TrEMBL record:
Signal peptide: none annotated. It comes from Onychorhynchus coronatus. This is PAR14 polymerase. Coiled coil: none annotated. It holds the Pfam family RRM_PARP14_3. The lineage of its organism: Eukaryota, Metazoa, Chordata, Craniata, Vertebrata. Gene3D superfamilies: 3.30.70.330. It comes from the Eukaryota. Residues 5-83 form the PARP14 second RRM domain.
Amino acid sequence: GSAETSPSVVFENIEKCSPNCLRLLLENISDLTVDEDFTVEVIPEINAAVATFLKSIDTEEFVRKCLQHKRVREFKMTARVLELTQTIKAENLPESISPDYITVYFESARNGGGPVSDVQLFPEENSAIITFCDHKGNT
């Protein structure tokens, strides 16, 4: 079968492009609508943003379009498909949360989850590392 690609694209070096400008730019390049067809999460600490497509699109083709786009080049931004992962970190968890609750929450199809193979709780950080059985359950 064909290799699965991530529905998310990472944009780096975004300091010259405000979050609203980035959203408009991605709408222009993709012909899709932000919030309806894709979401954008800006991560200022690492000067990056992640666009996650809710509609099925060819993210590799989208990255090619972005890298050729005049404005993306003017802003000196880079774009790449976010690699699929089997492990995520959940932060800001309630103090009394149980590993069982986390497992059931992340296995919920409604939350975009999938079968969980392991949960490591870090109560001192109010966080947990969740490992999925495969990379499909990490959206």
